[in-house]
Here is the input.
Amino acid sequence: MTIATERITLEEFLKLPETKPASEYIEGEIIQKPMPKTKHSRLQGRFLRTINEVVEEPKIAYAFPELRCTFGGRSIVPDVAVLLWEQMEFDSNGEPLDDVLIAPYWAIEILSPEQSSNRVTKKIIHCLEHGCQLGWLVDPGDRSILAFLPNQQPQFCEGSDVVPVPEIIPLNITAEQVFSWLRMQASTTGS
Here is the structure.
């Protein structure tokens, strides 16, 4: 949903107060992300936990939820932004700096029913054009993941297909495993 009709500069956008859900600056327009619903939030939480379990302690990377990344003339907020440890900047207390001025190393977008898959794909392509090494477009509706790698055709993953992850991240996961995270209660059979 676009919330501004007249074009503003990126600098003007960055001075505006944050919105909930987050707004993004894309090609001079302010576009507010849709409010996450249960499935979206569940997948996002599991992505964060699963990735950070294997990357945080060895200081390989860190997966952030809804992290504003400003680069290439845009300011976007991927559902999950994975930054390599070496990409992060820290203050004198060892805490990460708030402003991220680079593309995420790995961007994960979880498609909401009211979102345009082409618009979300365009965000992922923008990330890849500015140094991102992997983008996932996760579609809970059809239980598929479209993986985007630099200079390659996208890979469509479903069922038992292993979904590509960056080589540096020790994770092996199938599309089926990802969508199994949506089940929170044991299924019941007829009485």
